[in-house]
Write a structure and sequence with these properties.
Layout (H helix, E strand, L loop, with lengths): L6 E4 L3 E4 L3 H8 L1 H4 L21 H21 L6 H12 L22 H15 L5 H8 L5 H7 L5 H14 L8 H6 L1 E4 L2 E5 L3 H19 L2 H22 L8 H8 L7 H11 L4 H11 L5 H11 L5 E5 L5 H15 L11 E7 L10 E3 L5 E3 H4 L5 H5 L2 E8 L5
Parallel strand pairs: 4-7
Antiparallel strand pairs: 1-2, 3-4, 5-9, 6-9, 7-8
């Protein structure tokens, strides 16, 4: 009966305790344990070798920070019942359970029209059925339908506990110190005003550092040119594998991966959703890695070559610049790649591609950062910060990339 009173030694925060038996049961569930085999930063370890931490670690860390936030709010007079605390902790624990292999890298390659947030919801709803409705309030918090809106702000906002953990954790494991944030101080500055999460006035400087850290991590880690190149490569090889499968080839794959090679558009009825969840929760990075090692010897020359490049880290070359690449330059690079590699016209797209990556300090569609002033009023961070104005925070900076085989140079 007391088996759930476990502690986990986390390298970032130290000891993390299980707050309840329900949380412990969810952590032990095979669908949550699967997150051990989903890397938090996808293919970023191709650049930063230490970045092999998992979504499992991140989810536990986000839950830990949320527990600290709940304690802080209680000390400031915010009434939070034990049931509400458990609901928000379960919601943040499961917020990323819908991530697939290599996290964001394959989010739109394996399945169309089902982003990881929607997949998380589908899995949470099935877990709710398995637990006899004990996740109902957590799902309500996750969807933003719970009457007390500040709970949802802890999950989704400019400074939610998800961002708070991944910045500090990703900084720790990559060694990029610019991303380190003072999560302890920020959490102690949290408050509630008009049912929304706010930051006490004396926490302004910590908020400014947090926003700067997030911006720097995007360019140095999340949108690093080599990471972009690696993600384009694995996306291309899966697209090719699906096309080869559609043409009648029987490629080696685990049952879960084979399902997604053959099915991409998922219908919305209950039976299809159940099949989707059952196959998705059996899929992790080991399925992709084992398949690519076998596909290196497959009959399709393009797929075999793409897999060889992925397995041996022979990545595509990549250039980044502030403006779109001239179409004539792209056409020239494509012609050279086609000649050098002996490609068919339609196959060049797997080796030469262009697009854009962007960085935006203020994420669109999420609540703004509100500062609680000493007179009891709240104002947006842009109105009281010495560093930021709304235009600077909301500016979307885009860099354009061009990927191509290095050997054509």
């Amino acid at each position: 009966m007391t088996n759930w009173r476990k502690i986990i030694n986390d390298p970032v925060y130290g000891f993390i305790s299980m707050p309840s038996a329900l949380v412990f049961d969810l952590v032990c569930h095979p669908w949550f344990q699967r997150l051990r085999n989903i890397r938090q930063l996808g293919l970023t370890s191709y650049v930063y070798p230490g970045a092999v931490h998992s979504r499992f670690q991140h989810s536990l860390g986000a839950m830990y920070l949320t527990g600290l936030a709940v304690q802080t709010l209680r000390t400031k007079g915010v009434e939070i019942s034990p049931a509400e605390e458990e609901a928000v902790l379960v919601a943040i624990l499961l917020h990323d359970i819908g991530h697939g292999p290599f996290s964001h890298a394959l989010e739109h390659s394996l399945i169309t029209d089902v982003p990881h947030e929607q997949m998380s919801l589908l899995i949470m709803e099935e877990l709710n059925r398995q637990t006899g409705g004990r996740l109902t309030d957590a799902i309500s918090v996750f969807q933003g339908r719970y009457p007390r809106q500040f709970f949802h702000d802890l999950l989704t906002g400019q400074m939610d506990m998800d961002r708070m953990d991944y910045l500090r954790r990703d900084s720790f494991f990559t060694g990029v110190i610019e991303g380190s944030v003072g999560s302890d101080r920020i959490i102690r500055m949290l408050n509630v005003s008009d049912d929304r999460l706010v930051v006490d006035e004396k926490g302004i400087y910590s908020v400014e550092k947090f926003l700067i850290a997030r911006r720097m991590m995007y360019w140095q880690v999340y949108n690093h040119r080599t990471v972009v190149s690696a993600e384009k490569l694995i996306t291309s090889l899966l697209v090719r594998a699906r096309e080869v499968t559609a043409a009648g080839a029987d490629l080696f794959a685990t049952p879960a991966l084979k399902y997604f090679l053959r099915h991409r558009d998922m219908a919305g009825n209950d039976d299809d959703r159940e099949r989707l969840v059952n196959h998705f929760t059996m899929l992790d990075e080991s399925d992709i890695i084992s398949a690519t090692k076998v596909w290196m010897e497959c009959d399709d020359r393009v797929l075999a070559d793409l897999c060889r490049r992925f397995v041996y880290r022979d990545l595509l070359g990549i250039e980044l610049q502030r403006k779109p690449f001239d179409p004539s330059r792209v056409a020239d690079v494509s012609a050279r790649a086609q000649e050098r590699l002996g490609l068919q016209n339609d196959d060049v797209r797997f080796y030469v591609n262009t697009g854009g990556v962007f960085n935006q300090t203020y994420a669109p569609g999420t609540p703004e950062v509100r500062i609680l002033l000493k007179n009891g009023t709240t104002r947006d961070i842009t109105a009281v910060s010495d560093l930021f104005d709304r235009e600077a925070l909301s500016e979307k900076v885009t860099k354009y990339y061009l990927c191509y085989p290095k050997e054509i140079l």
